[in-house]
Write a structure and sequence with these properties.
The structure holds 2 protein chains of 2 kinds. In chain A, about 80% of the residues lie in helices and about 0% in strands. Chain A is mainly α. In chain A, helix 2 (about 25-50) runs antiparallel to helix 3 (about 55-85). Chain A is elongated. By secondary structure, chain B is mainly alpha-helical. Chain B folds into 2 domains: about 25-570, no CATH class; about 580-650, no CATH class. Chain B contains 26 helices and 3 strands. In chain B, strands 1-2-3 form a 3-stranded mixed β-sheet. In chain B, a hairpin with a 2-residue loop joins strand 2 (about 95-105) and strand 3 (about 110-115). The model of chain B is unreliable at about 1-25 (pLDDT under 50). The chains are: A mainly alpha, B mainly alpha. Chains A and B meet through helix 1 of A and helix 26 of B.
């Protein structure tokens, strides 16, 4: 398996994630798509690390996971709060931040 | 603070010592003894004005008396100064009193100091003496005016400012006095400001005077640039050191200043309107003292004019033009005060003319100024007395036959009338004929103009005198009983009338010796003897007076005739002085300001407001992008990221 295959898979996963963020309304699913984009980039990092024979990419992948975990905590908390107040998890419903 | 003031005093004292050591000039000595009290001259009337204005209505009862006391006090101080000066040898007479350092910036120094010499003491005596008499006269004239106290406060203010003007030892301080008398003149012309004509006249006098004041400020700036000093000793010590064209410009700027203050052509238009003020004001400010400040300025700056012959010629020409100009206006006016104002203009023309003749004329300019101060103040007070007796009637066509009912006024006025015509041995004979002679000595044309002026003077003054005092009465129906004024009014008139008679031969000869150390003096050399000149001018005077007497002795129509020569029409319109100013300065000025306002509104404001409005509109449209849909934000983020990546890839390729 060459690095190219990993990268192609990573690109496919990333694009799926982007598509999900743009088209889905459910905040949980949007959130999961964001996670998928993060993990797609993790895959690319790890693939490059293996190709270059050093641990830099692996380290960064761990960093991303830590940040993603922290983000999940905060993000889920926000989603929970919005759901409690609005009885909906749609990302189109909260629109107070407009002109 | 301490250090700087010590330094300043060191510098100042060093300067005084330096100027004392210099033997080449007749530098004023430091004032000691009686002279160290010369500040009282200004302080007394200024204090009077301050008390009357600050304490307001509480001083209504005794305020006028305080003002009179202050003015008389200044006269006594002036007289003491004069007597002290008499006891000194001629070269020790100029004294300087340093009061404090006013402006010290680098090399530039403007000390506040007073200088009293033979020239300024004459002014001090004239101003305080005539001023005090007019203060007393006003007690009667303004008796029933509710604002009497304010009037006396302004009169005191005027006396203080005028004394500051003539005793200042630098052009900068002179400028302060110059503006001070301008302010007092404005306040007093507009004293009855509820009359629109008086309010407008006051504004006009102020504005026209500003034009002249610009000349004075330019002259002071030029002096500072040229000589590095604005004090009399610094500028007048050796003006020939500067180049002549600079001196000519300084001289012309000073002449402009003199034209404004002394109502000389082309800035003469304000004086006739200034007659809207109360008559004592016309007598004091607009006849005897303030309007002669221009003559003082030119005579004081004599060394500059001596070194700049072109500027001096300009002074002479302006004087000659105004002399005829004022005389012609005086011939056509039916308003007694305006006729006298035209005469004032003309007589100051004589003084300016004399000052423009150089060392042969300076002394006679001052001589005529003094005698004119007496006889013109006398005649103005006489006019005031007539107005007082005639219910404020000013139109001479409504006078006539006042000889019998106002005997004292008739006698005092006649003294002034004979004096201004130059009938020997009245005052004007000595001063005016000397000017005519000196003018002939310098230039025959100017001499002829001055001689002709004497004839016209005789004509208009006799016209005024005849229409007022002789013939049949033409009084209005509501005013059948003219009466003589009270003693408080006629005594000052009598004193001035006495001086109109004797001042000439008292001062003739003496004033030349007195003033020569300050202004310089040269005898006029004439081809013909001065007796011939005197006879010629006397013949013209008799001719002018006879024509006027024969013409106006008969019935004078109650309304001015309409079918008259173009010259008379022009003279009634002040020789179109106002019309000229209106067409040449006022209307273009109005267009200019209007176009400026238009440009400001439609140009500058439009640009600024336009930018603000378009930015506002643009941001109003742009905020619509903020839809509040999180997904559309995400899309724009994606688009941005794609563009960045695409750019990177394209650049790599």
């Amino acid at each position: 398996m060459s690095t190219t295959h990993y990268l192609v898979l990573s690109a496919i996963l990333f694009s799926l994630g982007v598509l999900g963020v743009l088209v889905r309304r459910n905040a949980i699913i949007v959130f999961m798509c964001v996670e998928m984009m993060l993990n797609a980039s993790n895959l690319a990092f790890v693939a490059f690390a293996q190709q270059n024979g050093n641990l830099n990419g692996q380290t960064i992948a761990f960093f991303v996971m830590v940040v993603a975990a922290a983000e999940v905590v905060v993000g889920l908390a926000i989603i929970m709060t919005i759901y409690r107040t609005r009885r909906s998890a749609s990302v189109d419903e909260p629109n107070l931040l407009k002109y | 603070m301490n250090i700087s003031s010590t330094l300043a005093s060191v510098v100042a004292s060093g300067q005084i010592e330096a100027s004392n050591i210099d033997p080449s000039v007749n530098a004023p000595a430091v004032a000691t003894g009686a002279f160290s009290f010369m500040w009282l001259l200004i302080a007394l009337p200024l204090l009077g004005a301050a008390i009357l204005l600050i304490f307001g209505k509480r001083t209504d009862k005794w305020g006028p008396y305080l003002a009179i006391a202050m003015s008389c006090g200044a006269f006594i101080v002036g007289a003491v100064m004069y007597l002290t000066m008499l006891g000194l040898p001629a070269n020790d007479r100029p004294v300087n009193l340093h009061i404090w350092d006013w402006v010290i910036v680098g090399d530039f120094q403007a000390p506040i100091g007073m200088q009293l010499d033979q020239l300024s003491i004459i002014f001090v005596l004239l101003i305080t003496f005539v001023g005090s008499l007019i203060h007393i006269y006003s007690l009667g004239y303004m008796k029933h005016d509710p604002e009497k106290r304010k009037f006396f406060a302004y009169l005191n203010l005027f006396v203080a400012a005028m004394l500051l003007l003539v005793t200042a030892d630098s052009y900068l301080l002179l400028y302060v006095g110059w503006e001070g008398v301008g302010l007092a003149s404005y306040l007093l012309i507009g004293f009855w400001q509820y009359k629109p004509s008086a309010a407008v006249a006051a504004k006009k006098a102020f504005v026209v005077n500003r034009v002249g004041d610009v000349g004075l400020s330019i002259a002071i700036m030029l002096m500072f640039v040229t000589f590095g000093s604005v004090t009399f000793s610094g500028v007048l010590e050796d003006p020939a050191a500067a180049n002549e064209s600079t001196l000519t410009w300084i001289g012309l700027a000073l002449l402009l200043a003199a034209c404004g203050k002394s109502a000389q052509f082309p800035l003469q238009s304000w004086l006739l309107d200034a007659m809207e003020g109360p008559t004592p004001v016309s007598a004091l400010i607009h006849a005897a003292t303030m309007v002669t400040a221009g003559v003082y300025l030119i005579v004081r700056s004599a060394p500059i004019f001596d070194a700049a012959p072109d500027a001096r010629t300009a002074v002479m020409v302006i004087g000659a033009i105004t002399l005829i100009f004022g005389a012609i206006i005086g011939c056509a006016k039916d308003d007694i005060k305006k006729a006298l104002a035209g005469s004032t203009m003309s007589q100051i023309g004589y003084m300016i003319l004399a000052a423009g003749l150089g060392p042969v004329g300076y002394v006679f300019a001052i001589f005529h100024l003094v005698t004119h101060g007496f006889f013109k103040a006398n005649m103005f007070l006489g006019a005031g007395s007539i107005m007082h007796g005639m219910n404020d009637q000013l139109d001479m066509r409504r006078f006539g036959a006042l000889r019998k009912v106002m005997v004292i006024t008739f006698i005092t006025f006649s003294c002034g009338w004979l004096a201004i015509m130059g009938v020997p041995p009245f005052a004007g004979f000595y001063s005016k004929d000397k000017i005519i002679e000196a003018a002939f000595g310098v230039n025959v044309i100017v001499g002829a103009v001055a001689l002709l002026g004497a004839g016209i003077t005789a004509f208009y003054m006799t016209r005024l005198w005849t229409m007022t005092f002789t013939g049949k009465s033409r009084w209005t129906d509501d005013n059948k009983h003219p009466h003589e004024s009270s003693a408080v009014m006629w005594i000052p008139m009598a004193i001035l009338a006495f001086l109109s008679v004797v001042a000439g031969f008292m001062l003739a000869g003496a004033i030349e010796t007195w003033l020569a150390p300050v202004t310089g003096f040269e005898e006029t050399e004439l081809a013909v003897s001065s007796l011939v000149m005197e006879c010629a001018s006397l013949a013209l005077v008799v001719l002018g007076a006879t024509i006027a007497y024969l013409q106006y002795r008969r019935d004078v129509p109650l309304v001015a005739p309409q079918h008259v020569s173009p010259l008379t029409v022009a003279a009634r319109q002040d020789l179109y002085g106002d019309a000229f100013n209106e067409e040449v300065f006022m209307r273009p000025g109005q267009w200019l300001t209007r176009s400026m306002v238009f440009f400001d509104n439609r140009g500058i404001d439009a640009l600024v407001n336009g930018i603000a409005a378009s930015l506002g509109g643009l941001s109003g449209r742009m905020r619509r992008i903020q839809t509040g849909f999180a997904r559309s934000y995400a899309l724009s983020m994606l688009a941005g990221a794609v563009i960045v990546v695409a750019t990177l890839i394209l650049v790599r390729m």
